[in-house]
């Protein structure tokens, strides 16, 4: 059995249905999306828990019910009075998405206020998963507290997986974003950056440069996503290049990276090599982006639910 704890913010998602001016409500968020796909990909003996903070209002209750119905563990979620959950709206143009956010009263911004609570949530876990968005929504002292807890978790044998997921609008400055993300890379075993974002803010000339930068911080395995371009992996100083699945019918790229991350993590848990994990992750992401919304029910056509069957 493997226990994974994802740390971050689940939000109310308002997404277009495909009909003019028509939207539907759901729940999503980068680390939650990955958790949701992981829960479907892994076996029943594995445990996927989500750690965040919610309010005590009815919308927060609905989110708790949603997570429970998805068989995602909620036992360590913090509940805060007088706070609620964040909301975002997706707008699509030829399959590419843009977002508007409302998260000023989001309880998730308080998820790292107590080190003991964080440590208790991670106790007995094998893998901790978090993102740059997890860090971006936190006050600076809470970011440091979260990284300290993750550092201790790693030192005690846990595996830390990090997706930088750079979102400049969530940070006070570009320097704050880049310095914090690199500090997070230094406490992580696996880093899953996206080259386009990294090139914009770090000036990386190619995916290899992105991978090398995180490896120099101490990451044991770096997987550089690159949209439809070639994917680079760097482990033990060895660089490998992989060609992703080609997709022509792109409908919604909202969870492309999140589902890729889930496919990769699940495959590694199931004993696959990095190259095999890249293939499984790329295949899953290629299928997910042909449907609307962040969360697409598996199995998709020709896509077994459990990647160990591929």
UniProtKB/TrEMBL annotation:
Database matches in Pfam families: PfkB
Annotated keywords: Kinase, Transferase
A cellular component annotation (GO) from this entry: cytosol
Any GO molecular function: 2-dehydro-3-deoxygluconokinase activity
PROSITE patterns per UniProt: PFKB_KINASES_2 (PS00584)
GO biological process: D-galacturonate catabolic process; D-glucuronate catabolic process; DNA damage response
Domain of life where this protein originates: Bacteria
Residue ranges of every copy of the Carbohydrate kinase PfkB domain listed in the record: 1-295
PANTHER family named among the record's database cross-references: 2-DEHYDRO-3-DEOXYGLUCONOKINASE (PTHR43085:SF15), HEXOKINASE FAMILY MEMBER (PTHR43085)
Family assignment from sequence similarity: Belongs to the carbohydrate kinase PfkB family.
UniProt-recorded name of the protein: Sugar kinase
Organism, as annotated: Parasedimentitalea huanghaiensis
């Amino acid at each position: 059995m493997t226990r994974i704890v994802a740390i971050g913010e689940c939000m109310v998602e308002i997404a277009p249905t495909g009909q003019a001016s028509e939207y539907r409500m759901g729940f999503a968020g980068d680390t939650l999306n990955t958790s949701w796909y992981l829960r479907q990909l892994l076996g029943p003996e594995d445990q996927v828990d989500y750690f965040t903070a919610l309010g005590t209002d009815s919308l927060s209750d609905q989110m708790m019910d949603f997570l429970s119905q998805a068989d995602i563990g909620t036992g360590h979620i913090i509940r805060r009075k007088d706070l609620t959950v964040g909301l975002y709206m997706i707008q699509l143009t030829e399959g590419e998405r843009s977002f508007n956010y409302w998260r000023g009263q989001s309880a998730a911004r308080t998820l790292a206020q107590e080190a003991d609570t964080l440590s208790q949530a991670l106790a007995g876990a094998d893998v901790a998963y978090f993102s740059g968005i997890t860090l971006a929504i936190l006050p600076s002292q809470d970011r440091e507290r979260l990284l300290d807890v993750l550092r201790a978790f790693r030192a005690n044998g846990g595996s830390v997986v990090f997706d930088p997921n750079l979102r400049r609008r969530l940070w006070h400055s570009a320097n704050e974003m880049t310095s914090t993300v690199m500090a997070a890379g230094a406490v992580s075993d696996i880093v899953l950056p996206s080259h386009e974002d990294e090139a914009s803010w770090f000036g990386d000339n190619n995916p290899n440069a992105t991978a090398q930068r995180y490896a120099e911080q101490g990451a044991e395995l770096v997987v550089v996503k690159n949209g439809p371009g070639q994917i680079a992996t760097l482990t033990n100083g060895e660089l490998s290049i992989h060609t992703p699945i080609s997709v022509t019918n792109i409908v919604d790229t909202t969870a492309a990276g999140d589902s890729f991350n889930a496919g990769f993590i699940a495959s590694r848990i199931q004993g696959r090599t990095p190259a095999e994990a890249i293939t499984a992750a790329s295949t899953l992401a290629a299928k997910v982006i042909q449907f609307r919304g962040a969360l697409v029910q598996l199995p998709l056509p020709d896509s077994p639910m459990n990647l160990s069957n591929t």
